[in-house]
Write a structure and sequence with these properties.
- This protein has about 230 residues and is of the alpha/beta class.
- The chain has a single domain, classed as Vaccinia Virus protein VP39 (Rossmann fold, 3-Layer(aba) Sandwich).
- About 35% of the residues lie in helices and about 30% in strands.
- It is built from seven helices and ten strands.
- Strands 3-2-1-4-5-10-9 form a seven-stranded mixed β-sheet.
- Strand 9 and strand 10 form a beta hairpin.
- The longest helix has 19 residues.
- The radius of gyration is 17 Å and the shape is globular.
Length: about 230
Amino acid sequence: MTDLLQHQIEYYSARAPEYDRWFYRQGRYDRGPAFKRQWESEAQIVREQLLNAPRQAQILEMAPGTGIWTEQLIRIGDQVTALDASPEMIAINKAKLASDKVTYIQTDLFTWQAQRQYDMVFFGFWLSHVPGEKLSAFLSAVYEALAPGGRLFFVDSQDRELSHTRTETENLGGELQQRVLSDGRRYEIVKIYYDPAQLTGTLRDSGFEIEVLSTPKFFIYADGVKPI
């Protein structure tokens, strides 16, 4: 498992320069204008839900990547602490946003322990990369990092068939996927597609008041709280 997770970090470090092309459906991820319009429409549903809340003083973002969601978080938060294992992702995020509202910490999210509690915890397209055997410990760490009454929000993938065949993504069974970068390098990573109802139960068992919802085709997302 240690080797797999290190491989996953290496994959996202190598993928950093092309990550935005995936989210914005460009290049080999472009599946045509209708697909792109639907994708953006559903992404906007999630953005509006995220932004439709009172302002937060301190936000913790786990696995912020290139800053796609960090850019939204600085609109609703006074300060954002962004944790990522990839220095390449952090560098892109920092250059893109150039915001003194964001503090970056390079760290292993599976070993990091919060030294304080935050008013909100957010992660985008990260939970699906947490191995099942580590999910309980991860959610416990999130629970401890969140202040009572604090907000938990996340967004992730719904449909395992989103990748265009040109990306050569291959499901290897269980929790594993093989991903191929544009330069041909291949990596095995963890990728889990959750059933919203089952994930809702898991999160509630971990102490959160929350429900996992889905957009029509592409995303799952959840907006809940740690009870006071």
